[in-house]
Amino acid sequence: MEFLRFLAFVAAWGFMWRWVVKNRGSWNLFYSNMVGAAGGFIVALVVLSITFSVFPSPHGYESAQSENVVTREAEPTSLLPEAESVANPAALNDAPVFAAIEPDDKPSPADSALLPNYAGRAPKSIGLQTVLDQSDYEGRMALAALNKKLRGDSTADKSMIAYVMCSPFVTSTLRFPASARFADSQALVSHRFKDQVYTFSNSVTARNMNGDDVTYRFDCSVQEQPRVDATPAQWRLLALKLQKADS
């Protein structure tokens, strides 16, 4: 491919040079050759750039792929652990009954990162497959493996899956979801209830309309819905509340 690019470069340069000299009109031969050489070189550079755009170099593509692989290996996902503990079924008999959180439906001012009436805007449920499709490669593989491991056990502790499912519910309330940055999992407080109900408390920082980053403490409660077939489960939002961290 590099040899063909070189031929195209030389051909474009020579053709343009010859065309200028042949159609020089009242110009003398020396001046027309100077203009032809300069003009032909510019046209050849344009042709060369077009060939790079239409036919990218395989070496560059392989290098980019290698960099992506290195980056992926160096930055493993922090959402899911390598293994998840399974709670003792007997302990679930003593688990508390879930009580829904009252949402804050007040309008959101411009200095808030939340949408007005955010609780009403959040979706009622989200499928696990939707979250898998939106995850990066490492997160998708880890979440799929964990779901495959636990989906056949109705008493399994699915806290990590539930927390991942809370994330899109939280970001759906933000003015600029792409700006969301969740706090480290060390700050996470979680509770498990009966019937696969989970409640999480953590912090998220997001951008408001003034361009400032605002941190909120959120409480999110979700429940896994019974499966109707072999497809990934749906998770229902039970309650969601966000409050500024400094209020």
**Using DSSP, what is the number of strands?**
6
Strand content bin: 15-25%
Mean pLDDT level: 77
| Major β-sheet profile | 6 strands, antiparallel
Helical amount: 40-55%
Number of continuous helical runs: 8
Task: Report the span from N to C terminus.
Answer: 63 Å
Shape: elongated
When the domains are counted, the total is 2
Q: Residue ranges: pLDDT <50 for 5 or more in a row?
A: 63-87
Based on secondary structure, the structural category is alpha+beta
Radius of gyration: 30 Å
H-E order: HHHHHEHHHEEEEE
Model description:
There is one protein chain. This protein folds into two domains: 72 residues, no CATH class; 165 residues, no CATH class. Helix content is 43%, strand content 18%. The chain has eight helices and six strands; from the N terminus they run αααααβαααβββββ. Strands 1, 2, 3, 4, 5 and 6 form a six-stranded antiparallel beta sheet that branches. Helix 1 runs antiparallel to helix 2 and helix 6 runs antiparallel to helix 7. The longest helix is centred in the N-terminal third of the chain and has 26 residues.
